[in-house]
Amino acid sequence: MYWRLSNLYFWFFALLGGLLPYWSLYLEGRGFSYLQIATLMATIQLTKIIAPSVWGWLGDRTGQRVRLVRFGAITGSLFFAGVFLEPGFYGLLLVMLAFTFFWNAILPLYEVITLRTLGEHRDRYGKVRLWGSVGFIGAVGLVGGLLELVPIATLPWLLLPVFAGIAVSAFLVPAERGERKPRAPTGSLKKIVSHPAVIAFFLMNFLLQVSHGAYYTFFSIHLEQHGYGKLSIGLLWCLGVIAEIGLFLIMHRLSRRFSVRQIAIGALALTMIRWVLIAELTDVIGVLLLAQCLHAASYGALHAISVQYIQGFFGAHHHGQGQALYSGLTFGAGGAVGAWLSGFLVDGFGTPAAFWGGAATMLVAILVTWRGLRPPPKAPSMASR
């Protein structure tokens, strides 16, 4: 059961490992402007605003989450094939919107499947999820090494085996217990999302993803401008994910010692420091390595507590929609806004300005979290263990 849960995480994040570090370089090689690159990269996040809510609602109402995961994996792969036609800007925009609409449906649904399958062993979530990080690292290193040998234009072809892995692993997903007998939801979703602590939680994560806009869109271009090669760029991305894996392995210990609010504020402060270091000290390799290790805070710690936070506030009946809102309002809306804003900053002032913008956003997020974030009423994995 463990390897069947971990398998899809591995391939799903392997695709991210092939896309995020190198797709902006691929788009730059195709001759697109910085604003066009920012817009195309934003589509990866933009469809998360709508897609997870649609698929999460379907999953909660039908209980057929496993079938929806399989449908999203196959359909998303078919739409990505449009990249091989080498369309212009608007054609590629449509291709990426269609591809990501189905692809972004997979993870929120699968998070629910994983947590329900683990049941009382939810504390093992980190050990299952870390295989996604392993897949990301493997893809980043392998694709980066290959791109030292072949042109960046071949990137879509290098991603084909990963799409095959996603399709196969989707059909190995274990069936969810009671999947065919969904219970009618109780309680008010509106009441949950209007809770002040939930509003603060979503705003914190929205701002977090806005600050990541420069990283996911222009970090590779920023490094290339400072003389780093594609393999070096890939290894730096890998380092961040290795640090994330280490964090997942010890997260249960941190959860016992510190509150959700303490972990969140500490992680946000470290994220702010990370963006300043990247903006100003990229040429100092030791500092850059340290900045990448802080990915454990800026993604790992905050994602781990967020998954449990949603489970505590939204409960079993609205869990799928809670995951969808988390994905849509934070990774989706926040990521898209961050990508677009970073595009304007890079176009007008250069890549360092975009990372300074991310640091300023983190300062606001710290204030929001300090004033508004409170523990959920049901958080067994964060409070009572």
Automatic annotation (TrEMBL):
Residues 2-355 form the Major facilitator superfamily associated domain. It is a multi-pass membrane protein. Pfam families: MFS_1_like. Keywords: Cell inner membrane, Cell membrane, Membrane, Transmembrane, Transmembrane helix, Transport. It is found in: Cell inner membrane. InterPro entries: HcaT-like, MFS_assoc_dom, MFS_trans_sf. CDD domains: MFS_MFSD6 (cd17335). It comes from the Bacteria. Gene3D superfamilies: MFS general substrate transporter like domains. The chain crosses the membrane at residues 7-26, 32-56, 68-85, 91-110, 130-149, 155-175, 196-219, 231-251, 258-278, 323-341, 353-373. PANTHER family: 3-PHENYLPROPIONIC ACID TRANSPORTER-RELATED (PTHR23522:SF10), BLL5896 PROTEIN (PTHR23522). This is MFS transporter. It comes from Marinobacter qingdaonensis.
